[in-house]
Amino acid sequence: MRASERSAGDDEAFKKELVGLIPHLRAFARTLTGDPTAADDLAQDAMVKAWDARASYQMGTNMKAWTFMILRNQFYSDRRRSWRQSQLDQEAAERTLVAVDDPESPVALDELRLALNGLPAEQREALILVGAGGFAYEEAAEICGCAVGTVKSRVSRARRALQGALERGDYERDGQAAGDAMGSILAQADRLSGAG
């Protein structure tokens, strides 16, 4: 359907459904970028792209999967473009220089968060989509642009790697206070479920 053939009602329905997906897009963007500011920028870019491409969306189909695919493609496109740029982040450097977590009170959820961040991007993405996002393997495969079997394999490998990393303590601290992990994970779970 061309944009000229769309009615104002179609655009309004599209807008309403897209706005309802904002928490999910922000949460997924955060799992990809690991940075709240970059995640917000990525989610906003994906929403603009989705709005611009609304004529190609078939109302009644899975908008969540469609917008996640747009966001994911934008993320990897941005990464390809920026591979030559310096990755110096002043705030990250400052957090690295100041140890803010208490080694005597580690939080299991913080260890899970850290181990999850250590997974290869494709495995982490598949595990977040299926485990935290609640997507079926078929929907996750559509978002990732790969076969269902590939997603199942990535999820399986991610779970094994995550378990191994947690058992070995094989993850790097990132300078965030361990006590903040519970709030961070619960907030992410709320965003993924649409409650936040």
Structure description:
The chain is mainly α and 196 residues long. The chain has two domains: 3-81, Rna Polymerase Sigma Factor, Chain: A; 90-193, Winged helix-like DNA-binding domain superfamily/Winged helix DNA-binding domain (Arc Repressor Mutant, subunit A, Orthogonal Bundle), CATH 1.10.10. The protein is built from ten helices and no strands. Helix 3 crosses helix 4 (63-81) and helix 7 crosses helix 9. 27% of the residues are buried. The model is unreliable at 84-88, 92-106 and 185-196 (pLDDT under 50).
Number of strands: 0
Determine the N-to-C terminus distance: 34 Å
The CATH class assignment of the largest domain is: Mainly Alpha
Mean pLDDT: 74
Count of discrete domains: 2
Q: Fill in the CATH topology of the largest domain.
A: Arc Repressor Mutant, subunit A
Binned strand content: under 5%
The CATH superfamily of the largest domain is: Winged helix-like DNA-binding domain superfamily/Winged helix DNA-binding domain
Q: How does the major sheet shape up?
A: none
Rg, rounded, reads 18 Å
Order of helices and strands: HHHHHHHHHH
Task: Give helix % range.
Answer: 55-70%
Overall form: globular
Count the DSSP helices: 10
Question: Architecture of the largest domain in CATH?
Answer: Orthogonal Bundle
Briefly note the structural class of the backbone. Answer: mainly alpha
Contiguous uncertain segments of 5+ residues: 84-88, 92-106, 185-196
Family: Belongs to the sigma-70 factor family. ECF subfamily.
Keywords: Sigma factor, Transcription, Transcription regulation
InterPro entries: RNA_pol_sigma-70-like, RNA_pol_sigma-70_dom, RNA_pol_sigma70_r2, RNA_pol_sigma70_r4_t2, RNA_pol_sigma_r2, RNA_pol_sigma_r3/r4-like, WH-like_DNA-bd_sf
Protein name: Sigma-70 family RNA polymerase sigma factor
